[in-house]
Amino acid sequence: MTSINEMKIKQNINHLIQNYGIQLLNYMSDCEREEKALLSAFDKVDDQIIKASLELLKQNNLINIRTEEIMPPNIYYHLTKDGELILQMIYKFESLNFE
């Protein structure tokens, strides 16, 4: 049996929660989103925090970026298959009741 590092799982989930990762994944759940739309949807959060969170999601293969090469460029974000799987797991965790 493969061992599971529960502490690492907890750290990763907490990081997703604290850095708006779950909200960003959820916002992209139904379609590709333009960066401007993402930033305005999270208008109470500093743009640099959202951009850093998007970069972390990309580094972890949860989202992809598409750029339209115009001036200024339009930047679009969408979920990868891994991002879709993680989001489905989050929805499942949300529906559980261990109380």
From TrEMBL:
<dbReference type="Pfam" id="PF01638">
    <property type="entry name" value="HxlR"/>
</dbReference>
<feature type="domain" description="HTH hxlR-type">
    <location>
        <begin position="28"/>
        <end position="92"/>
    </location>
</feature>
<protein>
    <submittedName>
        <fullName>Winged helix-turn-helix transcriptional regulator</fullName>
    </submittedName>
</protein>
<dbReference type="InterPro" id="IPR002577">
    <property type="entry name" value="HTH_HxlR"/>
</dbReference>
<dbReference type="InterPro" id="IPR036390">
    <property type="entry name" value="WH_DNA-bd_sf"/>
</dbReference>
<dbReference type="InterPro" id="IPR036388">
    <property type="entry name" value="WH-like_DNA-bd_sf"/>
</dbReference>
